[in-house]
Design goal:
The protein is an alpha/beta fold. The radius of gyration is 19 Å and the shape is elongated. Helix 1 packs across helix 7 and helix 5 packs across helix 6. 29% of the residues lie in helices and 24% in strands. It has 2 domains: 119 residues, 3-Layer(aba) Sandwich (Rossmann fold), CATH 3.40.50; 109 residues, Rossmann fold (3-Layer(aba) Sandwich), CATH 3.40.50. Bound molecules: NADP nicotinamide-adenine-dinucleotide phosphate. NADP nicotinamide-adenine-dinucleotide phosphate binds next to strand 2, helix 2 and helix 3.
Length: 244
């Protein structure tokens, strides 16, 4: 049986692992989350040691295909996968869910980075719901605004002086998100364009409450990598290269 390496850490990666029949499936996780949701099949945890380490791993495990199903903001591992696939000739597909799109009634400000999000906030509100992720918090630490910070695991970097920390990982409901915004008198939401249904309720809640959203855009994907946005299309690609 040929080996499929799924670079994981997302719901799409778990769904693909469950459906990639005909392959020996190994999902790789970075090891950041304390209690990760585990996929079907084999799991390995921890970095590979850059593109060279990943290329060595692909050769050693005789990997027949790689699907980069990491989070759209995990850009270092995607660059690493691109370089390692080129070096070894192993076929690579990127599987990234579509980003979110603004709807009538939304008031979004798209920004290119968390630093730009931090700079945009002070003119928009004083009480921020912040869901840009644990690794981005340093960019907001120096601001005097109030932050309702929501992360999956406890942050290890400094937090803004005025904050309330909420550890949670969804899925969330519109009613729950609207209640949180009401309870903390939130007047602006800062988030990143992760896409997907699991965490989209906050956007609907913000629309209903008339709250502006600062949306951090996705980093660019490495050039020349074939990319799909659904698990069905990834399965079709696997069939096309002779498996699943
Ligand atoms: P990153 O900045 O792209 O990666 C940093 C380093 O972590 C990589 O160079 C790699 O180390 C290691 N790494 C990342 N993903 C890996 C994987 N799936 N398997 C093995 N090693 C991995 O990634 P990140 O933003 O820290 O995200 C880490 C993981 O969390 C990703 O797998 C991603 O799918 C998941 N995640 C990220 C976010 C987010 O917002 N960034 C949100 C939800 C889930 P080496 O160079 O040593 O190989």
């Amino acid at each position: 049986m040929r080996t499929l390496l799924i670079l994981g850490g997302t719901g799409e990666a778990r769904a693909l692992a469950a459906r990639a029949a005909g392959w020996r499936v190994v999902t790789s996780l970075a090891g950041r989350v304390r209690d990760p949701r585990l996929p079907e099949g084999e799991v390995r945890v921890g970095g590979f040691g850059g593109p060279e380490g990943l290329a060595r791993w692909l050769a050693r495990e005789r990997v027949g295909a790689v699907v980069d199903a990491t989070h759209p903001f995990a850009s270092r591992i995607s660059a690493s996968a691109t370089a390692a696939a080129r070096a070894t000739g192993v076929p690579l597909l990127a599987l990234h869910r579509p980003g979110w799109t603004e709807e009538p009634g939304d008031d979004w400000r798209r920004v290119p980075s968390v630093e730009a999000a931090a700079a945009a906030l002070s003119t928009l509100g004083g009480r921020v719901m912040l869901t840009t992720g644990r690794q981005s918090l340093a960019a907001f630490a120096g601001l005097g605004l109030f932050f309702l910070v929501r992360t999956v695991d406890p942050p290890s970097t400094p937090l803004p002086a005025r904050h309330h920390l909420l550890l949670d990982r969804g899925p969330y409901t519109v009613e729950g998100e609207a209640e949180l915004m009401r309870e903390h008198a939130i007047d602006v939401l800062a988030t990143k364009d992760s896409g997907g249904a699991m965490t989209a309720a906050k956007l609907v809640a913000a629309r209903r409450r008339g709250i502006p959203v600062v949306m951090v855009d996705r980093p660019p994907m490495p050039d020349g990598v074939r990319s799909v946005s659904t698990v069905d299309k990834a399965i079709a690609w696997l069939r096309g290269i002779g498996g699943a």
